[in-house]
Structure formats: structure tokens, C-alpha cells
Specification:
single chain, mainly alpha, DNA polymerase, domain 1, 5 helices, receptor, transport
């Protein structure tokens, strides 16, 4: 039977392992750096199941990457360190360089077209709208006279 004190410790330990706060005692960076490669090794093994040409398509390995991220977070918190931290980020960046260095970010920088193109694209529809409104008003006044 659990005592209230023991239940509190179980809850505190669970929260610590979920990344809410690192355990008391400080960050053991040396131990963290020794444990993180296990996450990288597991991720590398899983990535070998994905064809290399699909490594730039996140939907092909998102589950593996989520496991890798969760692993680094848990291992970091277990040794009393916050996550993310500069050392963990450096390790993760190394894994990114290993697997994703050839992936480019397909981001287009949109620019306005030159004024010679932009001005007619704006004025022509405005002028057509005014002209059509004028034709409708003119036609509605002349329709009464025709009847």
C-alpha cells in the first residue's frame, strides 16, 4: 500500500521524466553526452529502413523522428538537464547533418511584379467594373423609354 509521501514521489518522478522539470541535483552533461548517442543510433537504424532518396520527405520517417526527439528529451531529463539545451541541440544538429544535409528548403521568395505589369493588373479590372456599372445604369434608364 502506497503512503501519501510515496505517491507524491512517484508523481514527482513521473513529471520529471515527462520534461516538466529536471530532477534536483543539477545537470550531468557528461552523462547526457554519453546517453544521447543511443538515441542517434536507434534513429540511424530506423532510417536505414527508409530509402535514401526519401530522406528529405518528412512524411516518410516522421514516426522515427518523433521517437528520436522523445528519446533525446527523456535522456536529457533523466540526467537532470533541461531540454532543449545547447549540448542536446548540438547533438541533434549533428544527426541532421548526417541525414539531411542534401535536403534543400524549397521556399520561394515572392516579389511584386514590376510596376509596368502591376498597374495594368489593378487598373483594368477597376475601370471595367466602373464601365459595366455605367452601362447597366444607362441601359436601365433607356429600357423604360423603349417599352
Amino acid at each position: 500500500k502506497k503512503t501519501p509521501h510515496l505517491a507524491f514521489l512517484v508523481i514527482l518522478t513521473t513529471l520529471s521524466s515527462l520534461g516538466e522539470s529536471p530532477p534536483v541535483g543539477g545537470c550531468n552533461e557528461k552523462r547526457m553526452l554519453a546517453m544521447l548517442p543511443r538515441c542517434g543510433k536507434t534513429f540511424a537504424e530506423k532510417m536505414m529502413k527508409v530509402e535514401v532518396w526519401k530522406w528529405c520527405n518528412l512524411s516518410e520517417f516522421i514516426v522515427y523522428y518523433e521517437s528520436f526527439t522523445n528519446c533525446t528529451e527523456v535522456e536529457t531529463n533523466v540526467v537532470g538537464c533541461y531540454w532543449p539545451n545547447p549540448l542536446a541541440e548540438s547533438f541533434i544538429a549533428g544527426v541532421h547533418r548526417q541525414f539531411f544535409q542534401n535536403c534543400s528548403v524549397d521556399r520561394q521568395d515572392w516579389e511584386d511584379p514590376p510596376d509596368e505589369i502591376l498597374i495594368p493588373l489593378i487598373t483594368v479590372p477597376v475601370l471595367l467594373t466602373i464601365a459595366m456599372t455605367g452601362v447597366v445604369v444607362w441601359r436601365s434608364k433607356h429600357t423604360e423609354q423603349v417599352l
